[in-house]
Amino acid sequence: QLQVVESGGGLVQAGGSLRLSCAASGSSFGIYYMGWYRQAPGNQRELVAHITSGGTTDYADSVKGRFTISRDNAKSTVYLQMNSLKVEDTALYYCQVDGCWGQGTQVTVSS
Questions:
Q1: What is the pLDDT of residues 77-90, one digit of tens each?
Q2: pLDDT above 80 (res 27)
Q3: Torsion of CA 103, 100, 98, 42, to 10 degrees
Q4: From the CB of residue 65, how many other CB atoms can be counted at a distance below 10 Å?
Q5: Strand 10-13 vs strand 105-110: parallel, antiparallel, or unpaired?
């Protein structure tokens, strides 16, 4: 059974950077879809970025130019490099891998 574990969240000042990691395990087949989502209090969960096994990426407009998603297929791991963080990026960040969700990692950006 596929399991997904996120790491790398924390508290950072506005303008700073964080790198999130998400490791998947338990898959018997190649992983196709890996994505990062976030949910702030009172808001719906929203897509931040995703990447396919072929390397195709897509980003939310709000993070384009600041966030970069990448993956290491050999390690079944997806990363989210977040630069120029803003207070409005504060949220619980979730990883999804082929339909399986992690527990989330908190990102808090202070002003």
A1: 999 999 999 999 99
A2: no
A3: -60
A4: 9
A5: parallel
Residue whose token pair is 């963080």? 85
Average pLDDT score over the chain: 95
pLDDT of residue 28: 66
Sign of the CA dihedral 48, 106, 32, 56?
positive
Q: How many C-beta neighbours within 10 Å does residue 34 have? A: 26
Rounded Cα distance between 71 and 35, Å, is 10
Q: Is 75 exposed, middle or buried (0-12, 13-18, 19+ CB in 10 A)?
A: exposed
DSSP for the chain? --EEEEE--EEEETT--EEEEEEEE--SS---EEEEEEE-TTS--EEEEEEETT--EEE-TTTTTTEEEEEEGGGTEEEEEE-S--GGG-EEEEEEETTEE---EEEEEE-
What pLDDT score does 30 carry? Answer: 78
